[in-house]
Amino acid sequence: MWSVSGTHLLCPTHMESIANDSVAAARPLPTPRLATASSPEFAELYDEHSRAVYYLALRYLGDPQKAEDATHDVFLKVYRKLGEFRGDSSFRTWLYRITINHCHNLQQSWNARHLVTNADEAIWETTPTQADSPLRVLETKELGQRIQKALDGLSAEYRLLLLLVADQDMSYEEVANLTEQSPDAVRGKLHRARKMFATLFARSE
Amino acid sequence: MKHESKQKAEEHQQLAAKSTRENVAREFATTDELLRHDAAQTEVPPVIAERLSKSIEGLPGPARSWWQRIFDR
After folding, report:
1. Residues of chain A found within 8 Å of residue B42, distances taken between Cβ atoms
2. A contact residues 121-160, partner B, Cβ 8 Å cutoff
3. Residue B61 DSSP class
């Protein structure tokens, strides 16, 4: 049972998560290494970037199986097209471009087979928001599910912007370049996206 | 008797510890911080690395000239 205390969100938790909280918060989980003797450099790239690609695909698509397939396909594409990387952008940006295109294609083919309705954005403009309030939660295995639920309530564009900006390796300019809009447009949309996310997150108890 | 009371004391300690842990909250000042924490705690399934290793097994290696540029960045 979740409870709300003022503007703070409180939820019950799993003992193990809490027990490991201080360690888990400080240290990311290890990434399984890619075993490829023929190309150790590619294995290094995988080790460095696979979490970012998998996380973006997971939270953007909202499906672990699709995210797994997408991550595999993206890195396979990278392996084949690495010679085309011109170095005009950072490697992470180039990698994200491939990931986003791949995820878009997956979604489009899925949407073509299913009826998709988007939430009316107008409702968010009049909804009281907690965007500026701290998001206080008890550590839990359900945290990921709550985050996913809140992200699923956003438009694909807002979801993508939030996920890209959360990556500390990405600047606003790089996100703007990646999503083909001005940095000011990104800032404006992010402001609305954060407000909407905070509202949805509060409702996801 | 002594053993019983020791056991009860241990049980009590365990429950207290559990209760303390259950009431520990984590605060995220921003959405970005929350998502970063979520990303750091998200495990990349090991099966992806296994599948990828198999997929690239028979393929020719990537063009070397661009590797240097990547690692120079």
Report:
1. 29, 51, 54-55, 58, 144
2. 131, 134-139, 143-144, 147
3. P
- For the entire predicted model, the pTM comes to 0.72
Q: Burial, A196: exposed, middle or buried (Cβ in 10 Å; 0-12, 13-18, 19+)?
A: buried
Place of tokens 């990405």: A170
Q: Residue A95 and residue A90: Cα distance in Å, rounded?
A: 9
The CA distance from A112 to A110, in Å, is 5
Residues of A in contact with B43 (CB under 8 A): 29
> What is the spatial distance between Cα B46 and Cα B1, in angstroms, rounded to a whole number?
51
Alpha-carbon gap: A199 to the closest alpha carbon of chain B (Å): 11
Q: Spell out, as residue ranges, where chain A has pLDDT lower than 70.
A: 1-32, 35-38, 112, 114-141
Give residue A99's identity as a one-letter amino acid code.
Answer: T
The reply to whether ipTM tops 0.85 is: no
For residues A154 and A193, is the Cβ–Cβ distance under 8 A?
A: yes
Token representation of residue B24: 């520990």
How remote is the C-alpha of B14 from its chain's centroid? 25
CA distances (Å), origin B21, targets A141, B17, B38: 14, 6, 20
Ranges of H-type helices in chain B: 2-22, 31-41, 46-57, 64-72
For chain B, positions 4-43, list CB contacts with chain A under 8 A. 18, 21-32, 34-43
